[in-house]
Design goal:
alpha/beta, Rossmann fold, formyl-coa transferase, domain 3, six-stranded parallel β-sheet, three-stranded antiparallel β-sheet, 12 strands
Length: 395
């Protein structure tokens, strides 16, 4: 994994989908430089509360931008485009990524052909809502609505709901992570770069495996609340101190469940097979709830674990953070200016780079924080020149 530290990503990014990807790449030790417009910047910097009591460092931005550097650059200005081209060359940029609308690629000088002419082995990634031929803007809930994700989420007789996390954003980021890794391997083997386009819409659709295939076969799948279309009992059940989620995946597990004294009243012929339990799911779930509501979550979990039936307490986020398995994997960052500390969730996998840092990343960068270090220190612009660029709103 040591070779990752020699790679550089230059990312014209905003919102969530691309910043989350580059955040993931930063977990590998890749040098990530985020580019923003010097006037408008990333709108997410202005969302959430102003924890640090300073502009463009609101809490929503802090969540997925640790471990990066930040620059501002006006790519609509020829002087900004010159700096951009010099950065590609002098930084030996390995990966360029953007979630700008495609109509802006050539205008800003960030299209694949332009960058390839400067760095022939560049790995270029464009993330769009609906593909490179479309300039339709897309936010995560719009993708959830259009892809059918919302139709699959919510109570059976109720309205559609958005998912608890922005799956089109995060899912697309993960799909892009795989694309980037394949492109790095391809370049290592062949010496060639890559031009990759990722549609958030296609990414979102790819998760909807069973509903799309079953619908094409004539069976419509839609939301069912907390129950499952093909297995029962799988649902949320009330306890005397909260809720558990129980997942009985086969007839053997059901037999083990009804062999327990408190559930023996459910040992009925009509419930012996999964098909029978599905057919009677509403009546059966009511009966299970009548039993579980008289027992504590801990007692039920202990019982189900003893008979190897999957179960979990439904944890709040504070309870998740208190889980010992989670605590030993949480990431953190500390602001060198204010001393403010933030906590981030574990990475999908604890990379050697994160392990070497003891899971402590650099604090999310301030707006244009690294302009002087990079444009001045690497490209050689003097303090006076940097000040002029700032006055002209080029940086």
């Amino acid at each position: 994994m040591e070779f990752f530290k020699n790679l550089t990503v230059l990312s014209l990014e905003q919102a969530t989908v691309l910043p989350y990807l580059t955040y993931r790449l930063a977990h590998d030790g890749i040098n990530v430089i985020r580019l923003e417009h010097p006037v408008y910047g990333d709108p997410n910097r202005l969302v959430g509360w102003n924890l640090l009591n300073e502009e463009r460092m609101n809490t929503y931005y802090l969540c997925i931008n640790s471990g990066k550097k930040a620059m501002t650059l006006n790519l609509a200005d020829p002087a900004g485009q010159k700096i951009f081209r010099d950065l590609i060359q002098e930084l030996k940029v390995d990966i360029f990524a953007t979630n700008q609308l495609p109509r802006n690629y050539q205008k800003l000088g960030i299209d694949y052909e332009t960058i390839k002419a400067i760095k022939p082995d560049i790995i270029w990634l464009g993330i769009t809502g609906f593909g490179p031929q479309s300039n339709e803007p897309a936010y995560d809930p719009i993708l959830q609505a259009r892809s059918g994700l919302m139709d699959l989420t919510g109570e059976k007789e109720g309205q559609p709901y958005v998912t608890g996390i922005p799956l089109p954003d995060m899912g697309t980021s993960e799909h892009c992570y795989g694309l980037v890794m394949k492109a790095l391997y391809k370049r290592e083997v062949t010496g060639e770069g890559s031009c990759m386009n990722m549609s958030m819409y296609e990414s979102s659709l790819s998760w909807i495996t069973i509903p799309i295939t079953f619908t094409s076969l004539g069976r419509t799948i839609t939301r069912r609340g907390n129950t499952h279309e093909f297995f029962a009992p799988l649902s949320v059940y009330r306890t005397n101190d909260g809720y558990i989620y129980l997942a009985v995946g086969n007839d053997r597990q059901w037999k083990a469940m009804v062999s327990q004294e408190i559930f023996q009243s459910l040992d009925k012929p009509e419930y012996e097979t999964n098909a029978g339990r599905i057919e009677n799911v509403s009546k059966m779930n009511t009966a299970i709830n009548e039993i579980t509501k008289n027992h504590s979550s801990a007692a039920l979990i202990e019982m189900f674990n003893a008979i190897t039936v999957p179960v979990s307490k439904i944890n709040s986020i504070p309870e998740v953070l208190a889980d010992p398995l989670v605590q030993q994997r949480l990431l953190s960052a500390e602001d060198p200016v204010t001393g403010t500390k933030i906590t981030m969730p574990p990475a999908p996998n604890l990379t050697p780079y994160l392990e070497g840092l003891n899971r402590k990343l650099s604090f999310p960068p301030r707006f244009g924080e690294h302009n002087k270090d990079i444009i001045g220190g690497i490209l050689g612009y003097s303090d006076d020149e940097l000040e002029q660029l700032k006055e002209r709103k080029i940086i």
